[in-house]
Amino acid sequence: MAARRRVGYTAASVFPAATDRFASPSEADRRRYGSPGSYHRSVQSMPKYVVRHGVMRNLGVFSTRGEAYARGMQVMVRTSRGLEVGEVLCEATEHVLASMPEAKGGQILREQNDEDVRELRRLAEQQQREHDVCRHCIAELNLDMHLVDVERIYGGERVIVYYLAEERVDFRQLVKNLAKEFQTRIEMRQIGVRDEAKLLADYGDCGKPVCCNTHLSEMPPVSMRMAKLQKATLDPSKISGRCGRLKCCLRYEYDVYQDLQKDLPPIGAQIITNKGRAQVLAQEILAGQVLVQMEDMRRLVIDAADVLTVVSRGGSRHKPKRQPAELDGGVAQAELPAEEPYQQQPWDEALPPDEG
What we know:
This protein is an alpha+beta fold. Helices cover about 30% and strands about 25% of the residues. It has five domains: about 15-110, no CATH class; about 115-190, GMP Synthetase, Chain A, domain 3; about 195-255, no CATH class; about 265-315, SH3 type barrels (Roll), CATH 2.30.30; about 320-350, no CATH class. It is elongated.
């Protein structure tokens, strides 16, 4: 008969909810809640907050032990990277959590105190020295990479090196040298030009802090189509941000412009107004107006409400190809070669026929 193995109960087995949140329950918690189930339910009901942390301004949903925190408070948090300093943004309500489906978790340990402030000043000076050391090592190894920033986690668990590179870089020797110099774990993080601006840029052309360094958690894709729809200047020096790419703010109102444009007849459309028939020449999306040319060649600006009906959508690129049966007369049909019959095109059913 096999001997029974004695099972020892630890904080991780008895209180699994606390382990998942990077903290173990204290003796007072054990006496207060009694069973692990009661402790688990209590932790689930405790308030959670959205906290921004790290030089990349990462966002996460952090649990507490029941304490209340206000917006803007500087707190010490435990993340997957280690002990860090964070800023409380808001309480993690159901509405907020719905917009953060992939938010990482952690726990708020306490509010920042004077000792933490002094330690942060010391870390800032240490990071500057580590930046110089890292730059010297990169030059010594002749690596084709551009050093952007060096971040040391508050708890000293790791040092993160942010860099730019056009191609893949073999930095194995660099990691060995830095680990020997800093006596901690080294993490290399390749970033793009937008992330570089997020780390180093301060103010934009509008006079306010750059969006990527304040409220943006992700970099949305931006295209020239957005600038053209909003009738922004196409001068690259005026629509480019600190990163040299198109400004992120071009996307903020793009969806609104698209929704408003749906209520206007397209450019080139033939319309009927209370003043007669006309052709649309231009759109004033925000004003809800269109510039039209009447049959007597007069040009007027009218409201979208004055458009009685749209006769044709306009534009030759919207017209579907006509099938042989629709051609006028047997001569036109005979001119089509018999060995090359008309092939149905995808846009024949997708686009409405021209009624004009």
